[in-house]
Every structure is written in C-alpha cells, then in structure tokens.
Amino acid sequence: METLYIVIPCYNEEEMLPITARALIAKLDMLIADGRVTPESRVMFVDDGSKDKTWNLIERFHRSCELFTGVKLSRNRGHQNALLAGLMAAKDHADIIVSMDADLQDDINAIDGFLDKRAEGCEIVYGVRSARETDTGFKRFTAEGYYKLLEAMGVEITYNHADYRLMSKRAVEALAEFDEVNLFLRGMVPMVGFKSDIVTYERAARQAGESKYPLKKMLALAVEGITSLSVKPIRLITTLGIVIFIVSLLMLVYFLIIHLAGKTVAGWTTTVVSVWALGGLQLLAIGVIGEYIGKIYLETKKRPKFIIETNLEDDPQS
Questions:
Q1: CA angle 198, 203, 206 (to 5 degrees)
Q2: 8 Å CB contact between 3 and 90
Q3: Is there a single domain that holds both residue 147 and residue 283?
C-alpha cells in the first residue's frame, strides 16, 4: 500500500469547502478501509491567500480529524502556484499525490481508476473529461479551440485535461527540477515523462460558491500556456515578416510597370490601407515579443513561486 495525499488549492472557498471536506473524507475513509491506501493518507488544502474564512475552516478540519491537513500561503499567488506549493509540501509525506480543484466538479470516484492505473505501474495518471455537456456553447467552443491551438503551437498537452491527476512521488520530485517562474502545469507535467495513462470521467456542476476562473483568468492562463511552452508565435511573426517583404517587392515591381506604362494611379486608398495594416502588424509583433521579454525578465529575477506562511504538517494535532 502507498500513502495518498489529495491536494486541493483553495481561494475564497468558504461556501464550498465544508461540502468538499465531507465528500473527500468519506472517499479517503473508504480507500483506507478497502486497503487501497495507508492510514497515513491525508487531504491537504492549500489556502491561496483567501480573504474569507477558508483558512479558519481548514484549521478546524485539521483539529477535528487527523486525515485533514493544510498549507497557508503568505499571499495570493494564483492557482498554478498554489497547486505547486501543495505538491511540494505533500511529496515529503506521500507516495502518490492526487491534485484536484475545490469545487468537486471533478468526479472523486475517478480516484479509484487512478489507483488501478498506478497498480499497473503508471507514474502519472490524467483525469480526462469524457464530455462537455455541462459547459456553455461558448466555453465548449473556446476550450476545444484552445487545445487545438496549443497542439498546433507544438505544446504537449492531454486533451480535455485540467489539473485533476495522480502523480507519484518520483514524478513530483522530477517536476520540482523545473525552475521556471511562469507556470503552466498542464503542459509541464507531460514533459516529466515516465509511464502515464488517462482515466475518463464526467464533470459535474459546482454545488456552491462561484467559479474562481472567470473569462479574464481563463484568457490569462491561455496566454501563459502558449508563451511559457512554445516559441512558435515569434517564429510565425518572422514568417509573416518574410511574406510581407516578398509581397512588398512584388508590389514595387507592379507599380514600376504601371509607372513605365504611363498610367496614372491614384494610390491614396492603397497607401492608407498599407500604413494601417503594417502599423497594426508591427504593434502586434512588438506585443508578442514583449510578452516573451517580460517572461525572461521574471525568470532572471528568480523570485520564489510561493511562500508558505503556515504548514499544518508541522503542527501536531491537538
């Protein structure tokens, strides 16, 4: 048997957390009773600088039941950093770690499938949505388009997988070797390698509280995923620049022929359109390159990805 830690990043989950805690403790009790994981297994909540009573609830869970533990970050660092903090905190105590969100939209019964795949020798098991019927048409269209875009950009990613996965201690320790500050774990974990597989499940609706990933954050994560793991956008700009240069040479030849033929060309519309098109293209190119330069700037500073204020693993249960 192996020791399992279930790591759950939390940000302002006061309403949802009691529901999540009840469901997870029942699941963990069942796994322990069935002899699938050791009694030292735990549910680890990671408070990502919440402004409500999330941390108070985590402390209460810890005092009332030894199966609960928690980590409190010094300030809000974002979902990916909070998840990484939990993985790093859990790896010293666990043989296998399952990460999932606090909203319980990921089917916790898929953990049984994770453990089955682990028994077959898998170091990483990805939870993959079998369908997207619970999503709006807009979200379904944008999500599917985003996965295809990442694939086109050369990013190795598991289709319809978010951050619901099982990782062995060995895999998490390998992930710890990645030093980058700009995190996109969905793309980084496949780079670890090792034997992996998938388990499909149906995603449910959130039972309480509000989604912590509005459109703005989803777009930011999308940009992070592309610019952190692929240089193709810069290469596309280079290709586009070459194409435009060739077109400009052809246009030069064309206008020379028109001029030598003695034909009058108004040219006003062509000039205006050209100026605006090239100006917009230049601004876009500068913006994309600036995005990469900004990431280089953050990487060179080597700032910590997270700072743990409190770790209940270091606080013996009273």
A1: 140
A2: no
A3: no
User: How confident is the model at residue 67, as a pLDDT?
Assistant: 93
| 8 A C-beta contact, residue 230 and residue 159 | no
Contact 100, 8 (CB under 8 A): yes
Q: Domain with 213 in it: what CATH number? A: 3.90.550.10
Distance CA 14, CA 53 (A): 6
Query: Which position has the token pair 């509005």?
Result: 214
Task: Give the chain's domain count.
Answer: 2
Predicted pLDDT of residue 39: 94
Same domain, 28 and 153: yes
- Which residues of the chain are under the pLDDT cut of 50? 318
End-to-end Cα spacing for the chain: 27
Residue 296 and residue 172 in one domain? no
Residue 8 and residue 19 in one domain: yes
Regarding whether 208 and 96 lie in a shared domain, the answer is yes
- Cα(20)–Cα(9) distance, integer angstroms: 12
Quote the tokens at residue 130.
């079998």
C-alpha to C-alpha distances, 118 to 25, 123, 130, 278, nearest whole angstrom: 21, 7, 20, 54
Domain of 291 in residue numbering reads as 232-301
Cβ–Cβ under 8 Å, residues 160 and 71: no
Close Cβ partners of 195 (under 8 Å, ≥ 6 residues apart): 121, 122, 123, 124
Query: Is residue 128 within 8 Å of 161, Cβ to Cβ?
Result: yes
Closest CA to 203 of 251, 145, 162: 162
